[in-house]
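[09:14] KT: can someone run the structure on this one? pasting the chain below
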Amino acid sequence: MWYKFMICFIAGIGAGLGTGFAGMSAAAVISPMLITFLHIPAYEAVGIALASDVLASAVSAYTYGKNKNLDIKNGLVMMSMVLIFTLIGSWVSSQVPNRTMGNFSVFMTLLLGIKFIVKPIMTTKENMTAVSPKKRIMQSLICGTVIGFICGFVGAGGGMMMLLILTSVLGYELKTAVGTSVFIMTFTAFTGAVSHFAIGGAPDWWCLVFCVLSTFLWARIAAKFANKASAVTLNRATGVVLTVLGIAIIAVNYL
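[09:31] RB: done, structure tokens below
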């Protein structure tokens, strides 16, 4: 039991920091940890990770929203398209024999972390508000479609895809990008967790409880720190967290 607790607690640290700092999906960290060290079936591990993501993303979104770093209006638009096209992408993926992009999110986490360290995002809220509301909604529709389809087809990477597109394509400043990303992830993770448990049955309850509580705790800590930090500090902290998590996940999967 103690071994199970330690693995879940450590997985929750990585997942919580990734969620609170960068809007990263807990599935990218928790799933490989549970599969590798506790030998939990992959489908069940993903379900536990998604369930852990729900509260962690919700508390992070609340913290970012409280500090006015959340774009709910465009977030809802993007979320609707992400949910719809995730289903479509999943169906298309089921028709394709080889899923060559299965490790996409792992390497994306590492590369995105390096990007934040080398080339920080210094966009301001003033730059964001310069974009017309109509153009922003159209951008959200298109980007939500792309993110949803890729996530459904690849099977992972939702948080990282959203962060990349929100900052690089839609021109969000980093805090608002993370806040909007975790807001969307709250609902997508809930949908995914419910479907996994409905199809695969009840999970290992101890693992579920340990992972949910640990991820929630560390996401709360990371989100509070992130909202008080300067743009430069947040970029570096986010970059370091993503880079370390990316290397750790690659090590767990391949070494």
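[09:33] KT: thanks! The chain is about 80% helix and 0% strand.
[09:34] RB: yep, looked fine to me
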